[in-house]
């Protein structure tokens, strides 16, 4: 096992988190009787300044339940073409919700208000009903870019002017809040629904929370059950989420510092590094060789990285990456740079 930069999903629970899981009070959550799940849902909702939360097994289920809750079959959902809910969720929204996507473009995974305006078609029997705008913050395929409220608000205002609901895939919302230096509740405020992941930079083994108004979450709870996401004594894992929200948010700054350090060092070595306006815990590199070749060679030196395109690598810093892991990886990348430029 090497230093694993493939994703912040690879973290393993610390002893303190495991202790919290062992000690969790539990009950049957499908009856609404698991005190730890109830507490997690309340704490997450309160941290995001909204009424209610719904604990789900994964970020994918959080997004899918959100889309099911916002839409009717055949409705149109506007989304950036690089967003996780479209790009990495296997067409699930077409399958479960029966929606039609309207794919938008724009820098850092975020369309401009003009781009949205141009994609809205007039109300007409030929056109689907425009229903939802789905955004992502931080934006994964945009290199972990944190998107500021100054960029989001005009876009959301535009969406509201057509009566669209607005969902945020906030799998890494706390990374965005820490990087932008604002409260997560301020970043969540303009959205009707927000999904957050506990199992990424926050270091919990499993789980996401979908957050919104009380009526929205009451309806979402039905869809979670339909998808098989009613989890009984889920307090065992909710306790890890509660521990993560209480202890692992401020330390995300350390991951961002390490990623920034790596980005600078790698670009000094001659790598083409993609730097978002506000970076967080990811580094993206464009290589002159196939990503698969780099991944194999780096893995021989115990540095695990992932591909984000045929010649693009992604490195993610997280709870289980320390300074030693970073300097080992930089040494391996330095040697690799010499090899590919030789
Ligand atoms: N992202 C994973 C992969 O699926 C790409 C990763 O390693 O980054 N929203 C966003 C923005 C995500 O990045 C992810 C996971 C999800 C949703 C889905 O979360 P899970 O894996 O819990 O279903």
Automatic annotation (TrEMBL):
<dbReference type="GO" id="GO:0006545">
    <property type="term" value="P:glycine biosynthetic process"/>
</dbReference>
<dbReference type="InterPro" id="IPR015421">
    <property type="entry name" value="PyrdxlP-dep_Trfase_major"/>
</dbReference>
<dbReference type="GO" id="GO:0005829">
    <property type="term" value="C:cytosol"/>
</dbReference>
<feature type="modified residue" description="N6-(pyridoxal phosphate)lysine">
    <location>
        <position position="200"/>
    </location>
</feature>
<dbReference type="Pfam" id="PF01212">
    <property type="entry name" value="Beta_elim_lyase"/>
</dbReference>
<comment type="similarity">
    <text>Belongs to the threonine aldolase family.</text>
</comment>
<keyword id="KW-0663">Pyridoxal phosphate</keyword>
<dbReference type="InterPro" id="IPR015424">
    <property type="entry name" value="PyrdxlP-dep_Trfase"/>
</dbReference>
<keyword id="KW-0456">Lyase</keyword>
<dbReference type="GO" id="GO:0006567">
    <property type="term" value="P:L-threonine catabolic process"/>
</dbReference>
<feature type="domain" description="Aromatic amino acid beta-eliminating lyase/threonine aldolase">
    <location>
        <begin position="4"/>
        <end position="285"/>
    </location>
</feature>
<dbReference type="InterPro" id="IPR023603">
    <property type="entry name" value="Low_specificity_L-TA-like"/>
</dbReference>
<dbReference type="GO" id="GO:0008732">
    <property type="term" value="F:L-allo-threonine aldolase activity"/>
</dbReference>
<dbReference type="InterPro" id="IPR015422">
    <property type="entry name" value="PyrdxlP-dep_Trfase_small"/>
</dbReference>
<protein>
    <submittedName>
        <fullName>Low-specificity L-threonine aldolase</fullName>
    </submittedName>
</protein>
<dbReference type="InterPro" id="IPR001597">
    <property type="entry name" value="ArAA_b-elim_lyase/Thr_aldolase"/>
</dbReference>
């Amino acid at each position: 096992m090497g230093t694993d930069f493939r994703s912040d999903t690879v973290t393993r629970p610390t002893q303190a988190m495991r202790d919290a899981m062992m000690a969790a009070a539990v009950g049957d959550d499908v009856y609404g009787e698991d005190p730890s799940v109830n507490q997690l849902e309340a704490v997450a909702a309160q941290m995001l300044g909204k009424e209610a939360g719904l604990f789900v097994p994964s970020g994918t289920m959080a997004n899918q339940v959100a889309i099911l809750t916002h839409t009717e079959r055949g409705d149109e959902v506007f989304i950036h073409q690089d967003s996780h809910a479209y790009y990495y969720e296997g067409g699930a929204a077409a399958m479960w919700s029966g929606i039609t996507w309207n794919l938008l473009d724009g820098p850092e995974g975020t369309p401009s208000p003009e781009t949205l305006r141009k994609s809205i078609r007039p109300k007409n029997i030929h056109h689907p009903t425009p229903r939802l705008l789905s955004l992502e913050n931080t934006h994964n395929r945009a290199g972990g870019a944190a998107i500021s409220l100054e960029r989001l608000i005009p876009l959301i205002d535009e969406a509201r002017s057509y009566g669209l609901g607005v969902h945020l895939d906030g799998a890494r919302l706390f990374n965005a809040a820490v990087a932008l230096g604002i409260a997560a509740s301020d970043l969540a405020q303009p959205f009707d629904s927000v999904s957050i992941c506990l199992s990424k930079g926050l270091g919990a083994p499993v789980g996401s929370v979908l957050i919104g108004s009380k009526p929205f979450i009451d309806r979402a709870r039905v869809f979670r059950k339909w998808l098989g996401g009613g989890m009984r004594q889920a307090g065992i894992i909710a306790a890890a989420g509660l521990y993560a929200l209480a202890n692992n948010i401020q330390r995300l700054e350390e991951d961002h510092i390490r990623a920034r350090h790596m980005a600078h060092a790698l670009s000094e070595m001659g790598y083409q590094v993609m730097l978002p306006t506000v970076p967080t815990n990811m580094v993206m590199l464009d290589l002159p060789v196939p990503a698969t070749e780099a991944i194999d060679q780096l893995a021989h030196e115990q540095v695990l990285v992932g591909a984000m395109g045929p010649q693009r690598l992604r490195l993610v810093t997280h709870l289980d990456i320390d300074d030693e892991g970073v300097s080992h990886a930089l040494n391996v990348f330095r040697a690799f740079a010499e090899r590919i430029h030789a």
